[in-house]
Design a protein that fits this description.
single chain; about 230 residues; alpha/beta; Rossmann fold; about 45% helix; globular
Length: about 230
């Protein structure tokens, strides 16, 4: 089955290209990498823009104009879909990122195009959204090392910390509930394939019907495939 997508308008592509051209990659390198940040962005900059644009086209076909989206942990990889929502669908977006240094760098370039990131926890958002973007957040290896190891099949049974895993799991349950309680129904969730179990668990606990899309889409930075989940 052919993926359903809608092409980005030339003005949107131009705005995205301008942002990617003007971002401060040396500064971003130290945020994304302990070392080798310059080489990292040299390799990932163009794929991030190209693959982000493709994902934005798939998302465009699934969202309605004039709605509201919540982006959890939004960074460079989210620039294309965010710009598509603002420029083409005239939607309101709340782009949250707890890394203040990255937010400052992003806003220096993106705010001229009407896109603003905030250095706050998405769980504090007070609005209701018909779309929530939550990609590679619930299985973040830095914040949830044991949970992430299990999710990606890297857990070592000889050294696995079950108590820490239990604590991490309870934290993710609470995060999932806090975030998805902000979703209007019907609503759309964009998430990574590895995070599907948390979304399904929430839906089943709330007795909500849901449909996980058959397709998944690659990303340039974290490499986690992304999918769409429709909640009724």
């Amino acid at each position: 089955m052919k993926h359903q997508s809608l092409k980005l308008q030339p003005k949107t592509r131009q705005a995205i290209a301008s942002i990617f051209q003007r971002l401060d990659y040396p500064a971003l390198g130290s945020i994304y990498c302990d070392e080798g940040g310059e080489a990292f962005w040299k390799a990932h900059r163009r794929p991030c823009e190209r693959m982000g644009n493709k994902l934005a086209e798939y998302l465009k076909a699934r969202l309605t104009p004039n709605g509201m989206s919540l982006y959890v942990g939004a960074g460079v990889a989210e620039i294309s879909p965010l710009m598509m929502e603002i420029s083409e669908l005239k939607r309101s977006v709340a782009a949250h990122n707890l890394r203040k240094d990255e937010v400052e760098i992003l806003n220096h370039t993106c705010q001229n195009h009407g896109l603003l990131f905030t250095p706050t926890d998405a769980q504090e958002a007070t609005d209701t959204f018909d779309h929530i973007w939550i990609v590679s957040v619930l299985n973040d290896p830095e914040r949830f090392p044991e949970l992430s190891a299990l999710s990606y099949g890297r857990a070592n049974p000889a050294t696995f910390e079950t108590r820490q895993f239990q604590q991490e799991r309870e934290t993710v349950f609470a995060m999932t509930n806090a975030l998805l309680n902000k979703l209007a129904r019907p609503g759309l969730i964009t998430t990574s394939v590895e995070e599907i179990p948390w979304i399904i668990h929430y839906c089943e606990q709330q007795a909500l019907s849901y449909t996980v899309g058959d397709d998944d889409f690659p990303t340039a930075i974290v490499k986690d495939p992304i999918c769409f989940i429709q909640i009724e």
